[in-house]
Specification:
Elements: E1 13-14, E2 20-22, E3 27-33, E4 37-45, E5 53-60, E6 65-79, E7 89-98, H1 103-116
Antiparallel strand pairs: 1-3, 2-3, 2-5, 3-4, 4-7, 5-6, 6-7
Length: 121
């Protein structure tokens, strides 16, 4: 039996349901996260602008946790079929990788991961 080896550099954690990622153009639900990046699910229109690199903020309003201005770039995307064809709306999942985090941002992100991920069974 072959075992699949994890290729990621950082351990990935499932995000709590109320963790959001936002930037100047949109926001979405964080699916999972690590010290290296995260996976986001969000709603958009086909003709909405899409940028490969941007700054993102992480928010868990119910726990009052917030991190601002994390530089990142998109490393992969998966689009669903239209969920509302008349409005041309669809769901996109995007994997993003953090870029050039400062030591202070790394400390904040480490704290955010501890308090905003689903505990392992």
């Amino acid at each position: 039996m072959d075992t699949l080896e994890e290729r990621r550099k950082h351990k990935r954690f499932q995000a709590q349901d109320n963790v959001l990622a936002l930037n100047a153009l949109s926001f979405g639900q964080v699916i999972n996260m690590s010290m290296g990046g995260l996976r986001i699910k969000y709603l958009l229109r086909r003709n909405d602008p899409f940028h490969k690199s941007f700054e993102i903020s992480l928010l868990n309003n119910s726990a009052d946790h917030y991190i601002d201005k994390l530089s990142c770039k998109v490393v992969n995307i998966t689009d669903s079929g239209p969920i509302c064809p008349p409005l041309n709306l669809f769901i996109r999942e995007a994997g993003v990788m953090f870029l050039g985090l400062t030591p202070a941002q790394k400390d904040l992100l480490d704290h955010f991961l501890i308090y905003n991920s689903v505990p392992s069974a």
